[in-house]
């Protein structure tokens, strides 16, 4: 099929469903697909047999810092995504050009992990392909061009979306679509852990790959229980806002690392590696002894947060399944309060005068009052916060937030029901 015919068929995509958007937004998404098609043709000089793919960014909704303790989380796929155009190239190489970045080239003759590639896109490509080959699939050379609307440094996990995009390209082009979304998420995690050199959990990839509202229980790390919740966020009369606080992530590695390390201290008191292997009852009965043994009250408070937060994530999922959005919002606010007071990941101790996240939460509290909900988003300390805002005060909310934080800092989004996929045109 010529790309001119491909563009003509774009008008038949169910954009409103895929992106949980209104008909008025349809042209925006169509133009993005036209742009990625044009980018492919311009880059690779080929004008036929091009296929289209999409993988969304994600948002953590419940379970702040619970996944690394094998707890429960609630996440969602966003209407911001990485889209790609791809085509077999008849060579033994994979060539991927992401808009604004140099071409990544990976030879299928060498699929071993290489520490020199740690942190590079080539590592993710090589890792994803290597896993499919290990699973028995024959992967051939292909070209791809990708563009992204997933905000970097926002907690929306552009890296996981990239991995899921790669997984879907390889799955649809060389594995007959046989690999399910959960396995594609695991392949992305494998690539990031082993080939990219980042020891990430599975939350980001799972939320992107499965999408919609997704409840995940990591009690069995090798076989997490994943449930896609049938909930139509578009009917809640609320918008999801991700607010960029403008805080700097630099020099915060120690702050992020301290959270799992301190939780592990408490788990180690009981002879366990993670808090999920300790019951809350055991923890509550031994708080005095724990304090004396580890001499770290913040670690105890962070354990308090874990036990309540992992249970709260399960309750949030149940509230959505029951259609009780009001209860869900109350639980989200409790989650935010717990992160603020017990987990203490709203500002860095090393930067006591830099409290943009705390300030942003204060703004949300003042503007929303008893309506909606708000919480720190993702790792915390810097970056973004999340708010569920009623439509009737959405314009006012955005205006007041940006009056303090700056124009373009409040992003109005929605939860999309479709995860990583090929956009199949009729």
Which short descriptors sum up this protein?
2 domains; Alpha-Beta Plaits; Ribosomal Protein S5, domain 2; 14 helices; 426 residues; 12 strands; alpha+beta; four-stranded antiparallel beta sheet; single chain
Task: Explain what you see.
The protein is an alpha+beta fold. It folds into 2 domains: 3-230 and 416-423, Ribosomal Protein S5, domain 2, CATH 3.30.230.10; 236-413, 2-Layer Sandwich (Alpha-Beta Plaits), CATH 3.30.70.890. It is 43% helix and 19% strand. The chain has 14 helices and 12 strands. It has helices at 3-9, 15-18, 26-44, 121-134, 158-174, 181-195, 203-210, 253-269, 280-285, 287-294, 297-321, 325-343, 356-368, 394-405; strands spanning 51-62, 72-88, 93-98, 104-107, 142-148, 213-217, 225-229, 238-244, 373-376, 384-390, 410-413, 421-423. The strands form 2 sheets. Strands 1, 2, 3, 4, 5, 6, 7 and 12 form an 8-stranded mixed beta sheet that branches. A 4-stranded antiparallel beta sheet has the order 9-10-8-11. The longest helix has 25 residues, at 297-321. The mean pLDDT is 92.
Topology, please?
Layout: H1 3-9, H2 15-18, H3 26-44, E1 51-62, E2 72-88, E3 93-98, E4 104-107, H4 121-134, E5 142-148, H5 158-174, H6 181-195, H7 203-210, E6 213-217, E7 225-229, E8 238-244, H8 253-269, H9 280-285, H10 287-294, H11 297-321, H12 325-343, H13 356-368, E9 373-376, E10 384-390, H14 394-405, E11 410-413, E12 421-423
